[in-house]
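for the recovery benchmark. tokens below, seq after
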């Protein structure tokens, strides 16, 4: 075939025969990977690459994926270290401005790490701070575990160690603080350095970084690295040796690094509370109106009861009337605001939810806004609170249904809602035992509101009612 290179003799074999074995000495450029474990697999096996994979004139380097892994995590950790350095610098300035004798405290902490024959207690603050900083940085570095890094041929231990070493980088402000203290201790403070504590401090920082690594056996390994991160504070060679042994044991039993879990199918679906949150956002400052109306009416009822010396039945009647009137007026204001800013949307019908659920979401908004008034009335009279709690579901469902029946009405939702709620308010105020009947009416109110929701025509034309005066296109104005 023109343009096609002729293969040399002996290279027209099958793929299985084209790969030379490990004992061949014909100078072919085959290479064998070291024994590695790929992410997601639990077996280790040597892998042989043909000469076509390795560029001509170069030998395969099995450590290149590990170096790429470490470089990726260190660069990500360096960005976190820059952020931590800015926060540390700002907190340092704030401490020097607000904390009395801040330089003396800073000297005590750093000397506890670097100098001999001093109390070691202040050094515990650095250990705890290092654990907290590493744990915060791990949440950011963990994001990259499920990406392209999973395709690199590195071992489980290499990933765990690279992740732990990278988490030491965000601790750079603490390391720099101790390094400056180590220079000032023999020169400025005229104290001798203490090698066991300095070496233990480095192991403690590594233990703090390892404590934030999300491994599979974290329950077993994390107490060990906590020991490594804290025991060095004792300042002895035995404590330093204990930190080293704890790190070695952790590396042996920690297991593979666990990527961040993907969101479950249920959590990735539509947000359960999306419609109530959108309704509250549409209400804006009107969210506080029902509580304000309830506070004013209940305050007036309390003054009326106190100033007139009413008996207990009359006082309960005044409180019930104030509370249920607050339900009525608060729902009128809220319904009109929702009808103006967030009327029942055709878009909501595309969500995977039924008409009953959409009605219940709106009723939840109406009911939650009245909870402060209900709590205040309960503090006045617990029995009045029970009456209000029995009436609240029905009034909320009637209000949600009134929004869906307001189309084409000049009175909006207020006209429908007013004549629906007034009988409940009057009857339950005079006879509190009828609140049980109102509670039994709740399923019917839900059914009627859901029926109005289903009958809502998404493509219907809504006329805009306005005053003809000032409209240049109006026949009346001409």
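predicted aa per position
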């Amino acid at each position: 075939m023109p343009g096609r290179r002729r293969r040399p003799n002996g290279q027209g074999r099958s793929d299985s025969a084209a790969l030379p074995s490990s004992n061949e000495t014909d100078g072919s450029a085959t290479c064998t990977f070291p024994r590695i474990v790929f992410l997601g697999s639990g077996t280790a096996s040597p892998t042989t690459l043909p000469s076509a994979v390795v560029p001509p004139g170069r030998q395969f380097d099995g450590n290149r994926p590990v170096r790429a892994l470490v470089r990726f995590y260190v660069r990500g950790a360096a960005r976190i270290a820059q952020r931590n350095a800015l926060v540390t610098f700002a907190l340092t300035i704030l401490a020097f401005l607000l904390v009395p004798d801040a330089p003396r405290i800073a000297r005590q902490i750093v000397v506890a790490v670097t100098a001999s024959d001093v109390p070691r207690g202040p050094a515990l603050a650095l250990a705890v701070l290092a654990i907290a900083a590493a744990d915060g940085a791990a949440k950011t570095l963990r994001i990259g575990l499920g990406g392209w890094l999973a395709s690199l041929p590195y071992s489980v231990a290499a990933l765990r160690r690279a992740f732990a070493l990278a988490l030491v980088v965000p601790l750079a402000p603490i390391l720099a603080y101790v390094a400056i203290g180590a220079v000032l201790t023999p020169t400025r403070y005229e104290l001798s350095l203490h090698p066991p504590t300095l070496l233990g401090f480095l192991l403690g920082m590594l233990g703090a970084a390892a404590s934030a690594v999300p491994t599979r056996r974290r329950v077993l390994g994390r107490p060990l690295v906590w020991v490594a991160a804290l025991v060095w504070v004792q300042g002895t060679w035995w404590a330093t040796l204990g930190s080293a042994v704890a790190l070695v044991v952790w590396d042996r039993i920690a297991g593979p690094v666990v990527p961040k879990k993907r969101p479950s199918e249920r959590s990735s679906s539509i947000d359960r509370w999306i419609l109530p949150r959108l309704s509250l956002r549409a209400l804006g400052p009107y969210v506080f109106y029902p509580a304000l109306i309830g506070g004013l009416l209940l305050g007036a009822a309390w003054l009326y009861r106190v100033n007139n010396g009413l008996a207990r039945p009359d006082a309960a009647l005044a409180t019930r009337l104030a509370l249920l009137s607050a339900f009525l007026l608060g729902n009128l204001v809220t319904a009109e605001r929702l009808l103006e800013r967030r009327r029942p949307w055709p878009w909501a019908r595309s969500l995977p939810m039924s008409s009953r659920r959409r009605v219940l979401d709106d009723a939840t908004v109406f009911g939650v806004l009245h909870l402060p008034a209900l709590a205040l009335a309960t503090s006045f009279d617990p029995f009045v609170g029970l009456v209000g709690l029995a009436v609240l579901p029905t009034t909320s469902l009637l209000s949600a249904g009134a929004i869906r029946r307001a189309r084409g009405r000049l009175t909006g939702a207020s006209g429908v809602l007013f004549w629906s709620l007034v009988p409940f308010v009057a009857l339950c105020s005079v006879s509190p035992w009828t609140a049980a009947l109102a509670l039994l009416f709740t399923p019917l109110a839900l059914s009627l509101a859901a029926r109005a929701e289903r009958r809502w025509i998404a493509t219907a034309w809504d006329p805009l009612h306005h005053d003809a005066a000032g409209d240049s296109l109006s026949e009346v104005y001409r």
